[in-house]
Design goal:
- This protein is α/β, with parallel strands linked by helices.
- The protein folds into 2 domains: about 80-220, 2-Layer Sandwich (Nucleotidyltransferase, domain 5); about 230-455, Flavodoxin domain (Rossmann fold, 3-Layer(aba) Sandwich).
- Helix content is about 40%, strand content about 20%.
- It contains 14 helices and 16 strands.
- The protein has helices spanning about 1-70, 80-95, 130-145, 155-165, 165-175, 250-260, 280-290, 325, 350-360, 360-365, 380-390, 400-410, 430-435, 445-450, and strands at about 100-105, 110-115, 120-125, 180-185, 210-215, 230-235, 270-275, 295-305, 315, 320, 335-345, 365-370, 415, 420, 425-430, 450-455.
- The strands form 3 sheets. Strands 6, 7, 8, 9, 10, 11, 12 and 16 form an 8-stranded mixed β-sheet that branches. Strands 3-2-1-4-5 form a 5-stranded mixed β-sheet.
- A hairpin with an 8-residue loop joins strand 8 and strand 9.
- Helix 3 (about 130-145) crosses helix 4 (about 155-165) and helix 11 crosses helix 12.
- The N and C termini lie far apart (about 90 Å).
């Protein structure tokens, strides 16, 4: 038996050696495969982490607006790949090349996320820009833009451009032909005057159509042509406790006249106008109940103030409509396309006031809103609003219409001369009191940079 056992071991030893060799070879092959696919697995893991962070960021932003307005807000649930696909679809429908840029200040850094049409997100984290430094620069920048000095200081405008735009411009924005930027700004950056950022040669407005959004999943992504429809224009030139707005009658009559017959086109709008004593809250609600309007234009004081939504308001002839009331008011339409507030002021630097400004379209159930961060002069507002409506009839998007109007002020194509307002097409006569006190040159950012399109640019 001992001899037989020894013989068996002698036959097993060669087999074991072959098996062990095969085992070693298999382990080596497995290790090789693992080493080969490790970078791919790591890349997939990194992409999943980026996607999760963007989804979390969007949910956090939605939560901030829901908490501020104290109500649930309807939201899509698009992930980054779906957002990129949406941008592709919208680009094809509008003939534009849009991109979304999230700007998130953090205590020790600035986090930027860019998504362009059909591409994966690009994330930049800058430890050189802590939140305190960014906020101080934003405050200085705002002061530069609103001082009204003939010579504009661009140091802060250029610094902010270097921090926010330059990380993407040469490698992504220019090569992809991006012409429209949607900015999703978090607390600490929401009051940023986007149009006046400067690269040393040009303002940001000269390169891109600009829109500020509360969150991508909180805006409407259907493309709607509002080059023809129903316009309700209301406003007041006199107030009991607020400064008068003497250009409002001209503003209302001018925009309704040119919308009723857009020069150079066959486009006609049905426009209604109500001024001063007719600009009551009851009359406003009654007019909304009569028919569905596409655009509502309110030429009156509006303020976004610190505190809850009941402290921010739109001033009517007889009453104030608070931001809180706007959320429960019956607008008698599934979705108003555009709400324009032509004389706004926002407490820039206050987180709640900036939330109110950024969430204006959400609270009023409007697809897009146009408002200003600061009070622009009465005459300057008249010039920009008149040109905006002229451009709205021909531009591919409402964001591009605003951009073209702002460019024409910046470049001097729209200006006051004598007793006339010179526009891109023709001139508008001014009443003598307004002509006497009117500014001549409207190229300073104080006249055009404060106006922002909010929520959907389409």
């Amino acid at each position: 038996m001992l001899v037989n056992r020894g013989a068996r071991w002698k036959t097993w030893i060669p087999r074991w050696r072959r098996w062990s060799s095969l085992l070693v070879l298999g382990v080596c092959v497995l290790l090789g495969v693992m080493l080969a696919i490790a970078p791919s697995l790591q890349a997939q893991t990194d992409e999943m982490a980026v996607d999760a962070s963007i989804i979390d960021m969007e949910r956090r932003l939605e939560g901030e607006f829901e908490q501020y307005f104290d109500r649930d807000l309807p939201a899509d649930q698009q992930n980054p790949d779906q957002i990129a696909a949406t941008l592709t679809r919208i680009g094809q429908e509008t003939g534009t090349h849009p991109a979304v840029l999230w700007v998130t200040p953090k205590p020790d850094s600035l986090r930027l996320v860019l998504i362009t049409s059909g591409h994966r997100p690009v994330v930049v984290e800058s430890s050189e820009v802590p939140q305190a430094l960014l906020q101080e620069t934003v405050r200085s920048f705002q002061r530069d833009m609103t001082r009204g000095n003939r010579r504009v200081s661009l140091d802060n405008a250029q610094q902010l451009h270097r921090w926010i735009i330059e990380p993407f411009e040469s490698e992504y924005l220019r090569p992809q032909g991006i012409d429209s930027l949607l900015f999703c700004l978090s607390d600490g950056a929401r009051g940023l005057t986007l149009a006046a950022l400067h690269d040393g040669q040009q303002f940001l407005l000269e390169k891109y159509a600009l829109t500020r959004i509360p969150a991508f999943n909180l805006i409407h992504t259907n493309v709607t042509n509002i080059q023809q429809g129903e316009l309700l224009a209301m406003g007041a030139s006199e107030f009991q406790q607020l400064n008068p707005l003497p250009a409002v009658p001209v503003e209302l009559s001018t925009i309704t006249a040119q919308m009723e017959s857009v020069p150079g086109t066959n486009i006609t709008w049905d426009a209604q106008t109500f001024l001063n004593e007719e600009f009551t809250l009851d009359n406003f609600q009654a007019k909304l109940a009569e028919r569905p309007y596409d655009i509502v234009h309110l030429a009156t004081h509006a303020e976004f103030q610190p505190g809850k939504p009941d402290r921010s308001f739109i001033q009517f002839w007889d009453a104030r409509l608070t931001l809180e009331q706007m959320g429960v008011m019956d607008w008698h339409t599934d979705q108003l396309e555009l709400l324009v507030l032509s004389a706004c002021r926002t407490a820039v630097g206050d987180a709640q006031a900036e939330l109110g400004f950024a969430g204006l379209a959400l609270q009023s159930n409007v697809k897009s809103a146009l408002a200003s961060l600061w009070y622009v002069s009465d005459a300057g507002t008249l010039a920009l609003m008149t040109e905006f409506y002229r451009q709205l009839a021909i531009a591919p998007t409402r964001a591009e219409a605003l951009r073209q109007a702002q460019l024409r002020l910046l470049r001097g194509d729209v200006r006051f001369e004598g007793d006339q307002l010179l526009m891109s097409r023709g001139a508008i006569p001014l009443p003598k009191p307004l002509a006497f006190r009117t500014e001549r040159d409207l190229s300073h950012p104080i006249y055009w940079a404060g106006f922002s399109l909010i929520s959907s640019p389409w």
